[in-house]
Amino acid sequence: MNLYELYFAGSLLLIVVGVYTLASKRNLVRMVIGLELITLGVNLTIATMGIRMVDGAVSIDALAQSMVAISIAIAAAIAALALSLAINIYRHYGTFDVRKLRRLRW
Amino acid sequence: MSPLLPVLVLLGAAVIIVLVDPLMRGAGAREGGGVIAGIAFFLSLILLASQASAGNQASIYTIFGPESPLTASMKLDILSLYFSMIFCGVGLAAAVYSIRYMILERETGLDRYYPLLLTLIAGMVGVTVANDFFTLYVFWELMAISSYSLVSFRKWSWEAVEAGFKYLVMSTLGSLSALFGIALLYGLTGSLRFDVIRASVFSGGNPAATLSLAMIIIGFGVTAAVVPFHSWLPDAHPAAPTPISAVLSGVVIKTGVYAMLWSLFKVFTPLHYGFGAILMGLGVLTMTFANVVAVMQSDVKRFLAYSSIANIGYIVTGMGIAAYVLNRYPDQLSVAALALTGALFHILNHALGKGLSFLSVGCYIVRAESREISELEGIGAKMPMTTASLGIGLLNLAGVPPLSGFWSKLFIISAGLGIPSDALMFTITLIFVLNSILAAGYYLWFLQRIAFRKGSGEKHSRVREAPPLMLAPLIALASACILITIMLGPVLQFIQSALEVVIG
After folding, report:
1. Domain covering A3-94, topology
2. What does the pLDDT look like over B228-261, one tens digit per residue?
3. DSSP designation for B193
4. Model-level ipTM above the cut of 0.90
5. Contact (Cβ atoms closer than 8 angstroms) between residue A35 and residue B172
6. Best residue in A4, A27, A49 to probe B by mutation, most B CBs within 10 Å?
7. Where are the domains of chain A?
8. What are phi and psi for residue B39, nearest 5 degrees?
9. Where are the domains positioned within chain B?
């Protein structure tokens, strides 16, 4: 197993853990964490795809790196928005539990 | 003209509103933000229209630095102009409408509302001018984050924050799915540019490319609200302030359709990938489900939201028929072109019709302070101008001839019957026709309940006609609907040249 496959397996693992978190947890903050895990997995996928073998030497594509940097910034904005919505939901219901909300059916 | 210019106008106006808001608040001018936003939308609409009338040839621009396969780049062709003009037009109507609406509804936070509306439309225009997946993704998220914030704008209401959170989680999952597909494509080809990827991914047998195709359909399908990825829409669209509902239902979901259209037809190409049958299946599922559920709604905004999903079904079916024909019968190019013309034309008709319906219904909601259809029965007689615009919007959506909504559906249906020997296409078209009849039935029934039914007299005794500043965008959109019907020839000619961008 070379480095490339290891990174790819790691990113897939992160995505699977994130999907599991999102599907099994009923706490809003944990759901945001699940979403962030998937984002990390996808970002790692992009970075992995930027690894190229040129004449037996590893070369890193700068395009992938810059895309990951911007994607991380976007993910931070989404996480901030999601958490602020979670706070507002908490103010309305006094709970982070999705099952206690009136209409959130997934 | 650089394609970045309309985007920069919109983003610049957003910054200006934030900067001058303390001054305007000091002067007591609460309308200021809306006026600046309206001017910005009008300016970018003029820029785009002048470019369209100049007979623009497709051209590629880099944001900075020399042209190379690595730099982020933008394009400006007739297809981008067509979509971004629809986006700016509906944005303009929503901004003008908001000026009075937000004051009547006693909303606070206008210094955040108008900048978010501007960044929302700027993101959508940016998506249409992107020439690589990187640029597309950045503008996509600009649009997405603005629309999450706008859906949950009324953060004092439980409905808005819940629907906003649900929308955020589902839509972000969709974006991530598309991003994963893009990452796979990048790994396969080493580039994010559409033309480079198109040149590299042409053999249909590659499993990674097929997986990436599926992830991209799912990812953009969530924003386009294709069933089974639609369940955020009926919650999110009603929860937003009404002008935002009009923008979300009228054009934001069309951005998903544009991204799907571009990545499927221009990056993967139907010639090499047989996704046509899948698109047709998804489209038929979407329209049937949404039409059946729409009939059962008692909340007027939810009713219109479900009808948006159904209309996305029509558009996706049109795209599916085109892809299917291009894949199976490559010599029948005219049938595919007819189906795509119908789909593209329906995007315009639905954007105008649904924007008009949402804005008109918003007038009733402001005056009657209720969203229940049973409470709104008979209110139409008290507000004749609003009812006339709502009537034009609904008749356009219902596809009553000679309005333009009839022609776009007719194009898709006649394309579906274009190859009589194909049983699948015939079945799909049959379901399409049945759905159109059902939809026409419930639109007319809804219009009859609002406009003609004798409601209880006292309930609406204090209802007055909507203020002129709210009526102005209604009248403008209604005249646009009629104008397109009269000028069917030139409009179709413009769509034809947009079509050449897609299938060459």
Report:
1. Helix Hairpins (1.10.287)
2. 999 899 999 999 999 999 999 999 999 999 999 9
3. B
4. yes
5. yes
6. A49
7. 3-94
8. -60, -40
9. 275-504
